[in-house]
Amino acid sequence: MGSGKTTVANLFADLGVTIIDADIIAREVVAPGSVGLQQLVEHFGSEMLNADGTLNRAKLRQIVFAETAQRLWLNQLLHPMIRQRLLAQAKAAASPYAMMVVPLLFENGLECLVNHTLVIDIGKAVQIRRTIDRDHVSQAQVINIIDSQISREQRLAKADDVINNEGDVESLKSQILALHNNYLKLSEKAQ
Predict the structure, then answer these.
(1) Which segments of the chain belong to CATH 3.40.50.300?
(2) Residue 45 annotated as part of some ligand binding site
(3) Is 6 annotated as a binding residue?
(4) pTM reported for the whole predicted model
(5) pLDDT tens-digit map of 22-67
(6) 4 is in an annotated binding site
(7) Crossing angle for the helix pair 57-64 and 35-44, nearest 10 degrees?
(8) Which end of the chain has fewer beta carbons closer than 10 Å to its terminal beta carbon, N or C?
């Protein structure tokens, strides 16, 4: 959260890499008229909907990060739907390798879906500031969300590769290009 996953993914996409974004898929599975949204409303009530019939994400986030049991229920509902779409999009990828952008990859045991993991790393203070600025939420809520995830140290220990995203854009692009060239070589060996 707040690490720059989308920015990094967009830069890989500029290099022709197929990007499969779990956040986009997560929005699709709870779009108006979807089974996911219908089940959310049945569980939490119609107050989870905005006036236009879309999911009130801020309200849902508030509930699930305050109550572990509700977060677990939500994960059990949505994760199978999201996983199915992730795999279908990966299978349809046209580039030499595809990149899945998956927040909470390790927390949800989804690293088994990929051959290689890349972590976008930033310090906690930067992460908090970026998330507050982007989402207009309280510092307490951001810290609560961060604390519900594995630690930075655990995440880094599990990563095959790490991009440090605290520098300038040129540094980021340089790291991405080096990784892209390595991933192309890895994909050639895998075929």
Answers:
(1) 1-17+96-191
(2) no
(3) yes
(4) 0.84
(5) 999 999 999 999 999 999 999 999 999 999 999 999 899 889 988 9
(6) yes
(7) 60
(8) C
